[in-house]
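Budget justification aside, the reviewers requested a transparent look at the raw inputs and outputs of the sequence design task funded under Objective 1. We therefore reproduce one unedited record. The lines immediately below are the structure tokens for a 92-residue chain.
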């Protein structure tokens, strides 16, 4: 239990004491953090645009070349959307 001060209020829980005599109180840090960040809604991350290529084409390139979906989409876009041409370019 926290010790009482002379004014009747409990002594704050001290997290760190510094050599110059300053300290951080846990309740004050939590209050400031809550005010600065927790009371504001978190921004939603932007959604990735839908791919213009067929899911089967992307899956085929991902499996054959062992690349990520975003890399497969880039390979498809470089080849003009042709799976055969994309695979040929990647093999060369």
């Amino acid at each position: 239990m926290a010790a009482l001060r002379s004014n009747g209020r409990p002594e704050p829980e001290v997290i760190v004491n510094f050599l110059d005599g300053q300290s951080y109180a846990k309740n004050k840090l939590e209050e400031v953090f809550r005010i600065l960040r927790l009371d504001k809604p978190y921004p939603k991350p932007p959604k990735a645009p839908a791919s213009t290529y067929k899911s089967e084409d992307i899956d085929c390139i991902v499996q054959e070349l062992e690349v990520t979906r975003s890399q497969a989409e880039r390979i498809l876009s470089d080849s003009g959307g042709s799976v055969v041409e994309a695979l040929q370019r990647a093999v060369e």
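Residues 26-38 form the longest helix (13 residues). The longest strand covers residues 14-17. Computational costs for records of this kind are itemized in the attached budget.
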